Structures are given as structure tokens and as C-alpha cells.
Amino acid sequence: MEYLTNFSMIIGGLILLVIGGELIVKGAVGIALNFNISTVIIGLTIVSIGTSAPEIMVSINAALTNHPDIAIGNIVGSNISNILLVLGTSALFYPIIIDKKLITRDLPFLIILTFLIILLCWTGKILSIFEGVILITCLISYILYTIKYSTPKTIMSQSEHEDYDKDLKDIEKEIHEIEEEIKEEELVKMKNSKAVIFIALSLLCLGTGAEILVDGAANLARFFGIKESIIGLTIVAIGSSAPELATCVVAAYRKHADIVAGNIIGSNLFNIMAGLSIASIITPVEVSDEFVYYDNWIMLIATCIFSLIVFYKHKVTRIAGLWFVILYVTYIISKFLNI
Predict the structure, then answer these.
(1) Cα separation of 72 and 190, whole Å?
(2) What is the spatial distance between Cα 30 and Cα 34, in angstroms, rounded to a whole number?
């Protein structure tokens, strides 16, 4: 019965993480709107960080409780599952069209960042405060660049003006969608006191959920004699990616395919820049050889395959989605066969 208790801890932890992620987004957006902060900035920062909150908190808690394989496996495994499982499954429902801005701005940054993680892990095999500062710097730079990219230019050529007009229409569409969601949930009327309560509750849920999940995952690994890295790369990673999977599948089913790619790319970026950086700044995180020589490279290969398809086709078809899912199943089998 012990393994049932551990599974229950993992499921309970995941539920608290999902609730915490929802609450922190609602509370933060409520405060931002009360202070008249742009909805574009809200979408680029608060919402993106909020959707990655489960992965971030799990990695921080795992690092603090001396479970480095779960801390890193959660991030690496989540990024792999986001591309191969989440994107692949979503594409099976409806082909995923990739927005031009994601191809030219966000996707190259994700490729560079993935290479950077491989380099940082390869050279020292320990993620310390030095590597954490590098990743935090990347996070701040990315947010500032993205905000600047979304800001109108005073002087531009005719072609730039046409591109900007198109981007402006896309941004206005995104703003309208965000505002509609906000109105539906009555976030505009949220008082600061209520928003603060939401954030406080979210931190409680995220902290408690992360602690329960990590303890359950570590106990489960010991019970079955499985390496913690495998638990982190599979059960924990898939569980923490559950919100992205649900959101993307529903969006694809409703033919809002443009939301899917942005959600996945944004989540992967913030997983690396926020999750690993904060964890390594708080305490050094040892990187085991299987990440250095295998899993990190799988993450890079998945990112590159996705990027190549996008650069040439500008979309992920149902056939490509099927191959993504097959590759993910193959990867999971390979992990358990090497127990």
C-alpha cells in the first residue's frame, strides 16, 4: 500500500500546483490591471511565468531537499514532453499554425537557450549561482526585448510599417482575447486586497504542492528501485506539464491553433530561465551524467526537429504530430529499459 500513498502524494501535489498556478495568475493580473499595466506586458510576463509556476516550484523544492535529479529532470522532461507529447497530441486534433513572430523571435531564442543549458551542464556538471545569474540575465533580457519588440516605432520604412501594422493587428487580437477572458472571470473588478489574498494562497498551494510531490516522487523511486532522474523525467515532468497539455489540446480542438505554439515555446523558455536559475541560485544543483550525455541532447534534438519543421512548413501537421508522439513514447521506453 505504500506505493499507493506515494502516488496519492504525487497526484495531490499536482492538484495543488495547478490550483496555485491559476491563483497566482489571477491575483497578479488583477493587481496589474488596477495599476493600469498593459495587457501585452501582462501576457508576456505574468501569465507566462504563472503557467510555468508548477515546474519552477517543483525544481526549487527538489533542489532544496537534495533531490537534484528531480530538480533537473522536471525541467528537462517537461520541455521534452511539451514539444513531443503536448504539441504532438494537439496537432493530431488540428494542424498547428506557427505565428511569424514566434519563428523569428522566440524560437531562435529557445534554440540558443537549449544549447546554453547543454554547455553549462557539460562544463561544470554543477549548476551554481554563476550559472543561475547567467540564466536570470537571459530571462530579464528576453522580457525586455519582447516588450520592446511589441512597442511602436516612431520612424520606420514602408516594409517595416506594413510588418508593424500586421503585428499590431495580431497584438490587438491577443489583447482583445485576454480582455474577454478577464471580463468573463471578473478580474477587472478584483480589489487589491482580494488579489493579494489570491497570491498568498497561490504561494501556499505552490509551496505545499511542490513539497508533497517531490516527497512522493522520491519515495516512489526508492520503493520501486528506480532512479530519481527517471521519475523526474517522466511522472513529475508529465504531471507538471498537465496544465499545458489540457490548455493546448482544448485550444487545438477548438481550432485556436495559434495559442498552442506560443504556450509551448513560452513555457519551455520560462522553465529553463526561471526554474533552473532560481534553483541554482538558492543552492548548487549537481547534474548527473545521464543528463549531460543523454537527456539534455534529447531536449535539444526535439527542439531542433520542431524548429526545422516550423522554419520550412510554418506549421505542425497531423502526420508530424503523430511522429512527435511516437518519438516521445520511444524516449520514455528507452528511459525505463535502462533502469
Answers:
(1) 37
(2) 6
Estimate the crossing angle of helix 53-64 against helix 68-81, to 10 degrees.
160
- What is the sign of the dihedral through the CA atoms of 71, 74, 76 and 79? negative
Over residues 143-152, mean pLDDT: 70
Tens-digit pLDDT profile for residues 303-330: 999 999 988 888 889 999 999 999 999 9
Maximum separation of any 2 CA atoms in the chain, in Å: 69
Would you state the CATH architecture of domain 2-337?
Up-down Bundle (1.20)
For the ranges 19-33, 69-83, 158-172, the one whose mean pLDDT is highest:
69-83
* The pLDDT value given to residue 210: 73
The conformational region for residue 191 under phi > 0 = left, psi -120 to 50 = alpha, else beta, is beta
Domain boundaries, the chain: 2-337
| Residues 301 and 111 sit within 8 Å (Cβ to Cβ) | no
* Most confident stretch, 51-55, 164-168, 204-208: 204-208
Q: Which of 128, 172, 132 is closest to 150 using CA atoms?
A: 172
Q: Which three cell numbers stand for residue 151?
A: 512597442
**Residue 47: left (phi > 0), alpha (psi -120 to 50), or beta?**
alpha
Q: In this structure, are residues 312 and 65 in contact, taking their beta carbons and an 8 Å threshold? A: no
User: Distance (Å, rounded) from C-alpha 269 to C-alpha 51?
Assistant: 11
Distance separating alpha carbons of residues 223 and 229, to the nearest angstrom? 14
In whole angstroms, what is the distance from residue 311 CA to residue 128 CA?
34
199-248 pLDDT tens trace: 788 778 877 877 787 788 778 777 778 888 888 888 788 777 776 676 67
